[in-house]
């Protein structure tokens, strides 16, 4: 693309943003939004060189400071890359969403009207659909997030549900008001206070359709468009999508062995409105947040008057040692919202999760939940209550824990035997996945993932989970889906493939 054509395109983009009355931020922000929107929508493609800031300022009739401010922000966020001596280019890798080059099954088809003419999505729509993190729906060996269904007691589950359908309790056919089915909320409150040290009353537990909805609700009610949210870097893509959809500016915060690790400047000057964390099992690296870091984060949140969203998505599957209590349990200022899900312990399609909300926020959250999503599924919630109170959930978790631990042990052993000190395994103390880190720099984890896919395995490149330039390269491997006896042949295939790609 010639530099002038790019300036012309940006002028059009700027007019598009200008035309939206709800977006009337300062000029540098408008330029930032235009340029980012065009990159995300693929109107300006990876590798394209931007004109100099001086030329851009002249062509767009803006001050050079305005242009530099937008370019600097996009560079810091990883949309643009500055190459010393040669200029600024559109990055090869999108910061939030992965590679710009098309990956099978990822890019959405552009919508077309009845007469075949292309139609435009909103900027928000483009941002959300330019690349979907949920791309690889195919469940193949090592697919992170895939779980074992064979252990699930289907007949028992059918029986419990049938009981409520037979009961003809018509109240259960209604919308779920006031936060969901109260006996379920009470069962969850009891479970959380015993097993996760969450400080909770049944009234504080809201039944949602899972973490995604819990996060969406919290972001909508507690933050405004353009507010800053801190996310771990690398971060769970689902959380990023929900926060982006709420219009938040994501600030990536590095992760070390003690969990989310804000810099000294972040601690001193940071002003997030919301902080999203996975302290029990950082997703995807798997580190557990240290007690010291938990305290520091809580103190910071109290001082800055911001909210913490604690995503405790898989702590039921802890294989060794005692699990850390929840972050919420340490909170003295009622600033943590604690979220859990039945996606991992039951099955993802159940779409049931819970959000523990500080008492003073309850009226707002009850209204928000009801008005925004019209929750229901009370029959299902009633059956789940029995599943928990009759002890079936604990039995299932115990069975799954044994099965998953055996699968993890087998996979880790095979990897260590085959790849030795060329890799490190992180985050294997709990959960359903492990993270394989390459010790050599610059390994192309995307290429390994593509090669694995071609051989019938789904592994996720770690670089895809970073906002901005990837700090580490590796692979996320889910082991929950592969029976122990099937692990050796698949692990051998995978290790062989990795060995071929690693430098000697
Ligand atoms: C970090 C994290 N949080 C939450 C979830 C579950 O989300 P949901 O409850 O919306 O199914 C997942 C699922 O993979 C996850 O990886």
Notes on the structure:
The protein is α/β, with parallel strands linked by helices. 40% of the residues lie in helices and 13% in strands. It is built from 16 helices and 16 strands. The relative contact order is 0.11. It folds into three domains: 3-91, Orthogonal Bundle (Arc Repressor Mutant, subunit A), CATH 1.10.10.10; 154-391, 3-Layer(aba) Sandwich (Aspartate Aminotransferase, domain 2), CATH 3.40.640; 395-501, Aspartate Aminotransferase, domain 1 (Alpha-Beta Complex), CATH 3.90.1150. The radius of gyration is 24 Å and the shape is globular. The strands form four sheets. An eight-stranded mixed beta sheet has the order 5-12-11-10-9-6-7-8, sandwiched between helices. Strands 13-14-16-15 form a four-stranded antiparallel beta sheet, with helices on one face. Strands 1-2 form a two-stranded antiparallel sheet. Pyridoxal-5'-phosphate binds next to helix 8.
What are the salient characteristics of this protein?
504 residues; alpha/beta; Arc Repressor Mutant, subunit A; Aspartate Aminotransferase, domain 2; Aspartate Aminotransferase, domain 1; 16 helices; 16 strands; 40% helix; binds pyridoxal-5'-phosphate
Rg measurement, Å: 24 Å
How many H/I helical runs?
16
Summarize the biggest pleated sheet: 8 strands, mixed
Shape: globular
Q: What is the CATH-assigned architecture of the largest domain?
A: 3-Layer(aba) Sandwich
